[in-house]
Amino acid sequence: MSSADERPLAVGIDIGGTKTAAGLVTMRGEVRRRAEVPTPAADGAEAVLATAARLAAELVDGSADPVSAIGIGAAGVIDPRRRLVLSATDTLPGWSGMRVGDRVETALGLPVAVDNDVRAHAVGEARFGAGRGLSSALVIAAGTGVGGALVLDGHPQQGATGIAGHFGHIPSVEAQGLPCTCGRSGHLEVIASGPAVLAAYRRAGGGGEAGDTRAVFELAEGGDPAALAAIRTAGRALGGAIGGLVNALDPEVVIVTGGLSHTSALWWGPLRDGFGEEAIDLVRSCPLTPAALGADAAIIGAAALAFDLVAERMRSGIPSSAGSADRGILPDPRSRNLGGSA
C-alpha cells in the first residue's frame, strides 16, 4: 500500500436530507473540487447511497492525483466503528440500518470512514477552521436541531455507543413541559432550535405572517415583541446550556455553527448573556466564536476522518481495500444505472 503522503487527496461527502455534497480535499483541508446534488430521499435509502457513491466515483475518476480514501458525514445516528446508521428521521426513509461504510467501500475499492454529519462538521472546524491550532474545541450546531461534538486533539469524542454530541437532548429550564421529538419533554432542542423559535413565536400569539424562522427574525428586526421574545429565549437557553457544558468539559474554544449562527445580534447577545450567567468564573473567558468554514466544513471533516482511517489501517497492516460481505449489493457507481439524482 502506498503511504498517505503518496496519495494526497481524499473525498469528503456530506449526506443531508435535502442535499448531498462532495469534494476532493487535501491533507491540509483545502477543497480542490466540489460537487453537489439534491438528495433523492423520496426514492429511498438505496438511491441516496448510490448518489453519494456516484459523486465520489466522479471525483476520483476526474482527479489528476491519486485518492487515498473516502469519508462520509451522514445524517442520522451513526455508529462510526461499524459504519452503520443506527437510526434516522423520516427525512431519509429506510436509512436506518444502512451499512454505509461496507457498501461504499465495496463499490469503490477505497477505504471509507463514516460518522455523523455534525461530528464531521466539528472535525473540519476544529482542525482547519475556527479551532485550528487548538487541542480542544466544543462545537455547537444550532439549526433544524441542536447537536455538536467535543473534539480533542482533532478527534471527535464518540461515546460508548457512538451517539455523543446530542446536546439538544439535555434538560433545559426554558423548555419545561414542551414535548421533544425523542418522546421526552423539556429538552433544549424544543426551545433553542430554529423550528423552536418559530413555535415559540406562535405560542406567544405572534401573527400568522411568519411562515418560517427567517420570517421571525425579520419581524424581530422590526420590533415585533413576540418575535424578539422567542429569539431571546432561544439564545439565552442555548447559551446557558453551553455554559454548563463548558463548566464540565473545559474546552479552549466554543465554535457555534448551524443556521442560527448566521443570524443577528438579537440572537448572539442573549446567547452570550446565557453563557455568562451559567459559566463559572474559571471558564467564563472561554471564547464563543462563529464557525469559519461554511458549507465545506462537513466535507473537509469527513475527508480528515478518511485520512485518519488510512493511517490507522497502515499501522495495523490492513490492506487499503478491505473488502466486504456485502459485495455486489450496491450498483457499480461508474455505471449508468446507479439511481438517484443526476
Please name the defining characteristics of this protein:
342 residues, alpha/beta, Nucleotidyltransferase, domain 5, 2 domains, five-stranded mixed sheet, 12 strands, 35% helix, 19% strand, disordered C terminus, ATPase_NBD, ROK, ROK family protein
Q: How far is the N terminus from the C terminus?
A: 34 Å
Strand order of the largest sheet: 3-2-1-4-7
CATH C-level class of the largest domain is: Alpha Beta
Instruction: Kindly report the CATH topology of the largest domain.
Output: Nucleotidyltransferase, domain 5
Residue ranges: pLDDT <50 for 5 or more in a row?
Answer: 1-5, 322-342
Count of alpha and pi helical runs = 9
Order of helices and strands: EEEHEEEHEHEEEHHHHEHEH
CATH H level, superfamily name of the largest domain: ATPase, nucleotide binding domain
Largest beta sheet, briefly? 5 strands, mixed
SSE-based structural type: alpha/beta
Rg over CA atoms: 20 Å
Estimated share of beta-strand residues: 15-25%
Average pLDDT taken over every residue: 90
Protein name: ROK family protein
InterPro entries: ATPase_NBD, ROK
Family: Belongs to the ROK (NagC/XylR) family.
Organism: Microbacterium capsulatum
